[in-house]
Amino acid sequence: MKNHIRDMMLLTFLLLTSSMMWAKGQVSIIQTGQGNASYSFRGNSICDLEMLPASGFYITAEHIKVVKTIDGGSAKSPKRAPDVAEPVELLTGNPDANPFGYTWYYFVMEGDYDYEVTVDFRDPHADKLLIVGYQVITDKNRTDILGDGGSMKYDGNNMLVFQDLAYEQYGGIQSWNDNLVIYLKGTNTMTAKDANAIEGHGGTLTFTTEGNTPGTLKMKTTVNGPVIKGYDFTVFMQNLAMLSGSIAEQEIEIATPVTPIVDEPGETTTVDVGDEDAGDQDLSNTVINNVLYTLDEDNDDGVDPDENCVVLGSTMVEDDVRDIIANYEPGTPEFAEKFAGLTFMVPAGYGKILITAKTGEDGVLNVQVGMQEPFVITGALEFQTFEFPYACSEATYVYVYSNSPVVDTEESAAANNRAVKKTTVTVGLSSVGVNASGMQSSNSEGDVDGDEVTVTDEGVEYDAEEGTLVVNNPDVNTLTDDMFVGFPFLKYVDLRNTSITGVNVSRESGPFAGLSKNTFIYMPVGNTTNEANVIIGNICQSVVLDADMSENESFGLSGSFVSGCIELDRIFKKDETTTLCLPFDICAEDMEYFGHLYHVKSVDQGYVKVEEVTDGLKAHVPYLFKAADNNTQLYTLDVVEMSMPAEPSASRAADATGWLVGCYDNTYSDGADGAFRLVPNNDLEKLKFVRMQNNERIIPFQAYLKTDCQDDELGVTDKVVTGVVDVRRELSEVRREMYDLQGRKVKGRLNKGIYIINGQKTVIR
Questions:
Q1: Which of 132, 444, 546, 704 is buried most deeply by CB count within 10 Å?
Q2: What's residue 95's pLDDT?
Q3: Which pTM was predicted?
Q4: What gap in Å lies between CA 716 and CA 734, rounded to an integer?
């Protein structure tokens, strides 16, 4: 009897527990993150879900998943391992609700199914959450956030693109991205009716644009608060500036005061700065024909109607100008208070700046491109046009100002707050202009519509022996940190045929961490750098060639480009003579400053006959180079093209006999290849070439002599070589191998007789 009662109780328990576990319509919630998720039934077919995130978390429909599991089980046929079936549509009860507060959702139940609900409360900082007008931005809506065809887009990472935006609605932009970038195209306006226009949660807010054709943005908020709130830093790129208002006020205007005065490659545009348009206006902070005038009439700046020119009576110090450029944007009142002169813009690319000016005997006019050293005009007694080269990877300001000698300093400096001083020396400026030889984009918003794609094996051409890496994959739009660390030395990394933008190229951190300073890095337009040997598009701001590379490094380029500043990192002592082979031209005028060049004309009679070259250095041609001044560092500030020769391993002089061979790689001798190296000396007549020994090295940007002669040493001369050696000269300086008629080698001074010297019979009397 006891056993019967016990069995009945056990059966009842099993029936009850099985029914509870496997009854149809059961809902289970699996939760991650912090918050409270609950459910309730509405009739027999609706399940309501209620969500309340904890402080610092949020929830959206994107993070709630509902799936059918199994048919309702029974005690006779329990299903203890649910197999997941198709997902169930989740419906939003209040689509405009704050994702950080209470929200509710529901789904329709059908059949004899159980349901599993997965809820993931999210960290907004980890997700880089973005909300626009109370709408959470997801992959589903990011390419057309406002539903108007794409006036506002998000790249899914950190960039919002405004294109002819006309936003006027409740709610602004809220971002939990540490580095939000807003890219401006066209004319944009934004009014947030009940919120800050842009609200961040720490980090940096950056405004940028295409510098050659910059966009504009006017923003305001109707609440009593700042238009921009919550960022540690606000940065303006591509010459954008706050032309009115501020981030702490209710309105702000962001734009550039001028655009490049030439907008097509191959075109020349000049502006007459002293015409009647300028003569009738206040020129303290005025833009006329894309030239910004910030003149100080108290210092006799103004327009001379008789000569149709701007007269600069203010003088500025170069160091002061650098400080002004670094701290103030043209077009702002602060810049106008500090800078006296004219400002205009050149497009990204290369070409010439045209300045028509008159300085008189004592006047000095400076023309400064960005933060580069200024070009100087002086001694122009009448108006004449000067040309100066430029090469810029983005649209860049040109500052024109007087640097004339100061006469009256203390009184005028105390009389105004400009960083200028009055002088009795004035200069006249008739016109400014630009000839754009080549243009490229100044910046790019990248591929906003695509997903993140990083470098894989697809489209990668890596040559371990040559030390080169090229990525040919336009889908690639992002790079991972330290991705090149595992490679040995690379001559170059070419990423031009990708869609990568927004990278600040650095060899200290990020994707290019650890790459050698001698590795050339090619990047598409839309990236930036402060380092040498980085090419953006086809422009490199600074090239530094290492003349003492390590044995595992060498020089090589993926393609030609234009550079604004090239430097050979090597110090030459005064009159030091050595070999030289460079991948760019140096004009004759600049070459006079650096030193003298010599071609090898022939090898004869134990001598290398050389001849001075006067038409400048030609790219890829090897020379003997004699430095002009002590501690000369060979460099050029002119805009020049860098390229590789048709035969990258070496190149010969253009002469018929052409004995010098230039090197861009570390070149080693096998001891029997007829290669000679130069032994440097300050005296040309004491120079000598000596036969290279096995494994002896010639480093890049130098050259060696190639000849079939049997001597181990060869003298150098720029004079005519004869067949008979004059014994009154120091024979030890010119003879290399001497034998008597019995074939015995002779050393020291020679007595009278007949000898074989350098393979020729010679009579000593």
A1: 704
A2: 76
A3: 0.81
A4: 9
